[in-house]
Amino acid sequence: MSAMRLQLFHNRKTSHQEKPPPMLQETPLRSVAAGVPGEGKRPHAARPFFFLSDLHLSEAMPRTVAAFEHFIRVNAEHADSVFILGDLFEYWIGDDMLAEPFPARIAALMHTLSERGIALYVMHGNRDFLLGKRFMKAAGAIWLPDPFVITSFGTRIALAHGDGQCTDDRRYLRFRRIARNRFAQWLFLLWPYRWRKALAERMRHASEQNRSRPVSPRYDVTRDGIAALFKKTGTAMIIHGHTHRPARHREAGGTRWVLPDWDLDHGERRGGYLKIDAEGIRALPLD
Question: Is residue 126 marked as binding?
Answer without folding.
Answer: yes
